[in-house]
Every structure is written in structure tokens, then in C-alpha cells.
Amino acid sequence: MLPILQIDAGSIVYTAAHSWQRDLHRRRVAGTIPDLVLLLEHPHVFSLGRRFRPDHLLAPIEELRRRGIEVCEADRGGSITYHGPGQLVAYPVVDLRTEQKPHPDVIAYLRLLEAATLATVTGFGIRGELRPGLTGVWVGDAKLGAIGVNVSRGVTKHGMALNVSPDLALFSTMVPCGIPGAGVTSMEQLMGDPPPLKVVGEAFAGHLARLLGRRLRAPSAAELKAVGVPHPSEDPVLV
Prior knowledge:
The chain contains six helices and eleven strands. The protein is α/β, with parallel strands linked by helices. Strands 1, 2, 6, 7, 8, 9, 10 and 11 form an eight-stranded mixed β-sheet that branches. A hairpin with a 2-residue loop joins β7 (about 135-140) and β8. It is globular.
């Protein structure tokens, strides 16, 4: 069984994480590093996917930046998404190609991420659900986990954002995922006392590895360096 390496990266600004993913994606396409899943948080940021429309952002960009909230374009599907402290972000960098399927099914991969997210929240006693025609994990009419991916040359980028304990008020300045009338919730709102972000991340990584048929490993920083996986803090070219 092939390994997938779990990297607990802490808090990383969105642009640095985006550069990091591009670099890791290039290395994974070339086959010089193994499959990875990056677990992290972002400082306050709105990321704009390929289906973003200006009316999905309900506040002027200049005002948001004055409040310390970045607005960045992203080469993923979907519309607008908020990331911030208290939200688990998972970026798998995984080669989906096989001899039988050299051109992976992107929709099937989306469904796999949804299944991993749903299994994660179910394990903490939350009754999430999937909604036909929409991506993500929902509780009633409120989205708990958002999904947005890019699969290029058979290798994945971007991934999943799960609201553990973020400031939900910041979602009011956008149309969540471009879906009018959609609400947003969090594990904190549903549970009162959510588990630590690290615990939720480890649970998600375990479910992701299981569904991908990979063997999960959490290597040390020295092991990562040995297999050619740079961290943005150690490689300023990536920032």
C-alpha cells in the first residue's frame, strides 16, 4: 500500500500556501515525492475560485483589506470561500493516476473528499449530510465543510475547509460558495465545545488515507527534508 504523508503545517498565509502547493504539485507530477496531505490554518482570507462573480462578495475589497482580510484568486473550482483561524484546511497533493485510469475522474475525487469530511464530523457526533447537486458537507441548510479542487496532470491541489471554531460573522460579507440563501455553521456552534483543530485534522487525514487506499504516515521534519518536501518557512522562494 502506497504511503500518504500527513504534514501539520500550522498557520500559513494563503499566498505562501498556494506557492507551496504549486511546488509540491510539480514534484508529485514528476514522481520525486510521495503523496501528501497538508493540514493547516490560514489567517483571514477570501479566496476566489473560477466560478466567482463580483456579486458573491458583499463588501468592498479595500474595506476588507483595511480590516486585515486578504482577498486572493485561486486556481480551483467553485466560487468564494472564507478561510481563517479556527478552520481546518486540508490540501491533498495526491497522484490519482493508475495504469487502468491515466485520466482520473475529478467528480469521483470530489465525492471522496466529501466522504472523508462527512466521516470526520460523524466521528465527533455530528449528523452531517450531502446535498444532491451541491458540493460540501451540510447540516440542514448550513454548510459545515466546503470542497474546491484542481486536478492537473492527474495530481490534486486545493481540497477541503472544515469549520471547527472560526468567527462565523465573517461569512456574512460573502455569498458562501456562491449559493444564495446558504447558511454556514461550525463544529463549535453544533457541539459547544469542539475538539482541538489538530485532533480533527488527524481524523480527516485518517479517513482520507483509508478512502484513497493509502497508508498514512506523519513524518518528522528531517524525514520530510530527506524526501525533498520543502516547507515555506525553510524556502523563501516559495513565499
